[in-house]
Amino acid sequence: MTGGTGKTGRRLIPMLRRRGSAVRAASRTPAPARGGVEPVRFDWFDESTYRAALAGVQAVYVVSPHLTGTVADASAQMEKFVHAAAASGVRRLVHLSSFGVDQAPPDDPLRRAELLVEGSELPATILRPAAFMQNFSENHWSGLARSIRERGELAMPFGDYPVSHVSARDIAEVAAAALTEDGHEGKGYTLTGPEAITFAEAAAHISAAAGRHVRYVDPGPDAIRDALLGSGAPAEFAAYVSETFRFAITSGVMKAVTGDVSAATGRPATSFAEFAADAAGAWIP
User: Fold this and answer.
1) What is the pTM of this model?
2) Which one, of 153, 148, 151, lies nearest residue 138 by Cα?
């Protein structure tokens, strides 16, 4: 699996181990080996790392290189990796994409990556999650967890528009099912929580969970781009993500709620209130 140290990857590994699967966790900086988990160095932009990462692998979890926070378009790397996976004998591929990408034009970088997966000879499942709930509580370019903890502020633009956030744990559970069970091939799952809420409502849930007042503030439409630039992202990538975020929020696309988490896992999706209760320690100074 790629992205083994990311929000979904590090939750997916123990789920796969509980299902009896051996795991090869591929990342640029591999973690130490542990029971049933083999670390291996993998870099999207170093094709020499592909062979070792894929050798003997039956199923692959692929976090799109477009989501690594470095480039706006990594279609060439995605194409080479998919071909390498097919050539190595991979029998199943689960691709982590992003919410609404199936509705994007063919020249959109994320949609282009999906089309490469869909057009390959590999049986594949595409996951299209909404915004992660864990972006509020864990390391993220937005700095939300830090601003909530240190200033009691949830600062994001477009706060009047509802968003159906999804738990990274739910995404990982869907991925685990798709990697180890039959019946998910050829499907695209749009993964959301059970309700769409505004950022002000998210702040209220966080306040209740953390036992302290967290206020919502709107920093203005340029905040996303500025935060990405401040985190070291290239200007082209920052502009792409900022514009994509603005459109996704203000168009109302991200208020959609689906039942795909339940359909794939057999249990209800995690609510924001449930997530906040579990993550409360992240917001206490």
Assistant:
1) 0.91
2) 148
